[in-house]
Each structure stands twice: as C-alpha cells, then as structure tokens.
Amino acid sequence: MKYTLGKEERLKSKKLIEKLYKGRNSVKTFPLRMIFLQTEHTSEFPAQVGFSVPKRNFKLAVDRNRIKRLMRETYRIQKEIVYENLDKSYIFMISYIGKEEWTYEELYSKMEKLLTLFINETKKNKNDKA
After folding, report:
1. How far apart are CA 55 and CA 29, in angstroms?
2. In what order do the strands lie in the sheet with 25-29?
3. Is the peptide bond before 31 cis (omega within 30 degrees of 0)?
4. Sign of the torsion angle spanned by Cα atoms 117, 123, 127, 129
5. Using one digit for the tens of pLDDT, what is the confidence trace for 96-122?
6. By percentage, how much of the chain surpasses pLDDT 70?
7. What is the pLDDT of residue 125?
8. R_g over Cα of the chain
C-alpha cells in the first residue's frame, strides 16, 4: 500500500459534503470527531476524506492549517486500518473539536483510536442490517 493521500482520496465535492452532513453518523474520540456516510463516489479508493478545524476555536489561519496538516499526516500513515476493513465505499469528514492544539504523538494515537471506532461502527451497522 502506498502511504500517500492524493487528490482522488480527498473529499472535495460540495454535493457529497452536503449529503454527508445530512446523514450525521458519527464517532468521536476527543479531540477528533468523524462524520461518515456509506455512499458511491467517483474515486477508485474505498474512502474519501476531508479535514476541518473550526474558525471559532482557532482564530489564526496558521493554527488551523497546522492542525489540518497534522491530521492529514496521521490519517495518511494509518489509512490502511480503514482500507483493509472496508468492502463498500465511504466518505467521511474528520473535525478537530478541541480548543487547544495537541502534539503530533497525541493526535497519532487519537487518530488510530478514531479509525478503529469507525471500523467497529461500520461492522456493527453491517451486522444490524444482516
């Protein structure tokens, strides 16, 4: 598996983002929250992901961009957790809900926990429907 996060893997479509926020399936591990939706998308990858940091909590764009960069990096390294366990295509948005900036090591462990929670949630939903 390539440890990249290319254009095809990023969530850019405004229609899909709108659809995602209407669905509201989510998992949370402070300071990260993931909103996800099982839907078809144009990418050949099993998931498309977006990242957000609210302006309300971090006024300076420099701080918001740094946190988004850290979140993208921690996701990029650990995305195999998601890719190995998904059989359908998903879109999701990972939001930073904390008010203070966390270190890379702390975010790495929280991202791992968040992705594991997401996989468990999707498996639970699949079992409920079956």
Report:
1. 20
2. 25-29, 32-38, 90-96, 47-52
3. yes
4. positive
5. 999 999 999 999 999 999 999 999 998
6. 98
7. 77
8. 14
On whether the CB atoms of residues 84 and 47 are closer than 8 A, the answer is no
Using an 8 Å Cβ cutoff, are 35 and 23 in contact? yes
Q: What is the full DSSP assignment across 60-114? A: SHHHHHHHHHHHHHHHHHHTHHHHTT-SS-EEEEEEE--SSPPPHHHHHHHHHHH
| Pairwise CA distance, residues 88 & 55, whole Å | 33
Residue that the structure tokens 């598996």 belong to: 1
Q: Using the predicted structure, report yes or no on whether residue 129 has a pLDDT greater than 80.
A: no
Residue owning tokens 């144009």: 42
Record the pTM: 0.92
């079992």: which residue's tokens?
127
